[in-house]
Design brief:
single chain, 163 residues, alpha/beta, Diaminopimelate Epimerase, Chain A, domain 1, four-stranded mixed beta sheet, globular
């Protein structure tokens, strides 16, 4: 019941109390800068809460992240190296999903470690800083496996998505 109420009262407009428009622009710029260091694609999506029916059905952040990964086309990159950072605010749950091209090179343990670092910062109310930290850490991983090549095309938008 507590989770249900938390989701019910964490409305979409609350995203702006965690991330100002300037914060979102800074995140967008960080993603753009990141993608100058590697050939992969990086997306950030934040969702205030789940629909009540999803909470009642016990849908978790990981389940929702998989749907968002698909909806945003993160899986649809030339080298199968898209990465999604998904934040579910009501649960303070961070999920990182990586496409098979990068996931075959880096295990789930890497993404879990980055998520834990970000969630620690979120508990300290450092939401923008947590996301920027995650982008930086992911950039290091992606640059190691998919270094930037001249002429690389930006396949996905760098803009954060508020769901």
């Amino acid at each position: 019941m507590a989770r249900f109420l938390k989701h019910l009262f964490t409305t979409r407009w609350r995203v702006s109390s965690y991330f100002s428009s300037n914060d979102m622009e800074e995140i967008k710029q960080a993603i753009a800068a990141s993608e100058k260091k590697h050939r992969a694609e990086l997306r950030f999506a934040v969702e205030a809460s789940l629909e009540p029916i999803h909470v009642l059905k016990n849908v978790r952040g990981a389940d929702r992240a998989l749907k968002v990964f698909s909806d945003l086309g993160v899986w649809d990159t030339e080298e199968n190296n898209g990465v999604l950072l998904y934040l579910l605010l009501a649960d303070h749950d961070m999920e990182i999903l990586a496409d098979r091209g990068i996931n075959s090179l880096e295990g789930q343990q890497t993404w879990e470690s980055i998520c834990q670092e970000m969630e620690k910062m979120f508990r300290e109310k450092k939401f923008k800083e947590g996301v920027l930290h995650g982008i930086s850490r992911i950039t290091d991983v992606l640059a190691r496996h998919f270094p930037y090549r001249e002429g690389d095309q930006n396949e996905l938008s760098d803009a954060p998505v508020v769901l």
